[in-house]
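Methods: holo model generation. Sequences were used as deposited, without trimming of termini or removal of tags, and paired with ligand SMILES retrieved from the corresponding compound records. Each pair was processed once, and we did not select among multiple samples. The sequence and zinc ion SMILES for this entry were:
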Amino acid sequence: MDQLTARELRDKIAQGEIKSQDATQAAFDAIEKTNGNIGAFLQTHKEHALKKAAQIDEKISNGDAVGSLAGLPIAIKDNMCMDVGKTTCASKYLENFHAPYNGGAVEKLNQADAVIIGKCNMDEYAMGSSTENSGLQKTANPWDTARVPGGSSGGSAAAVAAKMCWATLGSDTGGSIRQPASFCGVVGLKPTYGRVSRYGLVAYGSSLDQIGPITKTVGDAGLMLGAIAGYDNRDSTSVPETDAPVLDYLKDLDKPIENLKIGVAKEFFEVDGLDPDVAKSVKEALNLYESMGAKLVDVELPHIKYSVATYYLVATAEASSNLARYDGVHYGHRTADPKDYIDVYSSSREEGFGEEVKRRIMLGTYALSSGYYDAYYLKALKVRNLIRQDFNHAFEKVDCLMSPTAPEVAFKMGDKTDNPLKMYLSDIYTIAVNLAGMPGISIPCGLNSNNLPIGLQIISPNFTEDKLLRIANMFESKTDHHTRFPAR
Amino acid sequence: MDVKLIVGLEIHVHLATNTKMFCGCRLGYDDPPNTNVCPVCLGMPGSLPVINKQAYIHSVRTALALNCSITKFTKWDRKSYYYPDLPKNYQISQYDLPMSEHGYMDIPLGDGKTKRIRILRAHLEEDAGKNLHEGLGHSQVDLNRAGSPLLEIVTEPDLNSAEECRILAMELQKLVQFIGASHGDMQKGHMRFEPNINLHITEGNNTYKTPICEVKNLNSFRAVEGAVAYEEWRHLEEWKMDHDFVMEKQDKQNRGWDDVKKETVFQRGKEEAHDYRYFPDPDLVPVVIDGVWLEEIKSTMGELPAAMKERFISDYGLNDYDAMVLTGDKATATFFDDAVKAGAKAKIVTNIVTQYGLSIANEKQVALDQIGVSSAQVADLAKLIDDGTINSSAAKTIFEKMLTEDGDPKSIAEKHNLIQVSDTSALEGILDQVLADNQKAVEDFRAGGKKAPKSRGFLLGQVMQKSKGQANPKVVGDLLDAKLNG
Ligand SMILES: [Zn+2]
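and the model returned the structure below.
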């Protein structure tokens, strides 16, 4: 059963060939066997999931209509609020927090008859690129358990790569879906900002955060996106369907794009620390597209070199404000014996937050302080506009841009924990896409000499996920990288 | 020595929406604590704000009534500070692009003149909850009020007396109630005032500016007037003691009002002031007001109280005082206007409304249109007085009967025998009887001189009494004069 893609499994369940209960049980069996080594899951909801699966099986046997994810076992990143179990954001502060409501994406999964089996580990509050910042547990890369799975959606990517479930949701603020997908050799899609509701997604950088799927194949990503995309009147930044309708992402998936023009920015290949194996794999991928009739076009992204700096001002400023609510007063961790009422705040936060979270809160607070706002935050917003313009100019000439997803393959645990700046550069290719708001996907495009996966990133204009998936699928249909999984 | 008081007011007005500013929770501050709350106004992880369109409309209406220009493109900003009654530890407000600015309000002064007070800006924001500290070893937080829509109005420092501050406060209450933007209930804390006060003292060639003080959270007109007057006195006294009590020497401070001792008390100085770290709220999209929508709001504004008052004076011939009373609130103004428009004489309607209607409304603590008598009934009643069908003492009785009985004033008058008798043959019999029974008074009258008018009055009174008040006094008087002089 674990050889199937999510689409195949979904179809078999809908046709009654496989019971959702059996698929769900198989997922829990795999988790039991594998999660001890990998640590992808923070919590599982076996009883609840099996009950839900039984209900869907009954619907199917009764011939009732079922949703697009009928009976498919799915896991989500633990920063999405759900009224079952806990929503921890992998933070000690929220270790015992039970959200009293379901977020927009969770609701959509429920409406589509998905079976949510559990919640995945992540960097605390989605701040990190290796999942090492989780305040609750470690997650290993299934390809090499001494290495990180990437982050911040490391648990979600590792769960798919280790075949503990068929598809997961992650969230991507600066590459947090695409980079772990790349490190784990799976597909990760960050939709256009506003495509998927952020309601119930615990905010890190509100103007950058977006939920998206991590899957085995491009088609599975399309299936998942179709289920979770759409306007939500509880999220003012979600885009109405009148402005950008949700499309059928599977209908024309197998049709190649004729006369595809691929933008290649020299800036992408001039990055310090770009692993030659990664550069080689990505160039081979570009050659393959050329052989399919695509044209490679040189484009310039002159402001892209400022993306990391811009991102760490915008995201941390928003984070410093978003995380102010974790104060020890209303919910979550409260310090045991506060000296006074100020100490309730400072000690609860001191004890509840990890180092990286504190670092980013301080960075962001500083950037917003009076006297510094213009020089840092306001300037960052201006550069952000320039980066957006760079992309828009490029897309006047090309259908998409291609680059490595990350400058390197999965690194060893502990390699970068002492050097936050080095860690930040792990997202150098993905960050600009969040700043610009556009959709981006990472697909596996090869293994390096150490048998570690390499990811190809494809970026397309706003709300062209249909095209983006078709472009990605062109590559997938001509290669077998997506069929490779780590040895058990 | 010349002393000038300089005051600018910040006013927080609670808007009369059904639900909160950024979520669907009901507005109900008096409900049991923490019952009108949801993930959004509790600041739960993952929750997001969505603006309340009705609050925006109320704000636009108020801003228009204050002659402000409406900003076509506004955004929302986060104002950061840590406080237990603020669940997100930031307040969603409008910082550098308020929804409206640059207006004015004309306030009536005691001498019959008006004074123009400029409005700097008005912006929308969400309120915080309430911390309760009373009688406990710990504090409690009630978040029913958290996230309710607030309009903050800021005047220019154009107010120069405590009385002007009170008048502006009262006029503003009247205005927001009139246009329905707020219930303006002071007792329920629907309006809070924060005056910024200092003195400009000129002595010889020197002008001293005393340090600005802001008195926080005043929630009654008396407190506004009292706090400003107290500060005026305090600033002058402190300056007299020390001419260095000037703006350059001391930063702005916040003070509170002690309603028992009737004095202001120091709260905090600038060194403890917050850096609010304002920045645009990424969870909300900017509001773009299109012309069509603005016109739609304008067209539903109706007549404002100042314009209505002017019309009552010019069209209905009311005096300034009556016109002011009758435009005191929208219900009264509309009630009065409707009765006059139904064809009754304005002067008579004025008397009925001010003498009977408003006192009953006051007694019952309800608006005039809620006392149980309609404007149509009042119009009919006024017409009955005007054409002599009833006299004014009967009018009062009929009005009171109408509070509990059905029917138009005329049928009530008939039912209770309150129709004036103007029929001379019916009255002549009574009159003859009275004259026969009171020979002494008849003689006094005929003798003329000082006693005559008193005697006439006495005889008239006797007739009215015998007719049980139904006799038309004018007809009786004419008859009496004819008989005695004849
Ligand atoms: Zn609420």
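Residues B 20, 23, 25, 37-38, 40-41, 147 surround zinc ion (CB under 6 Å).
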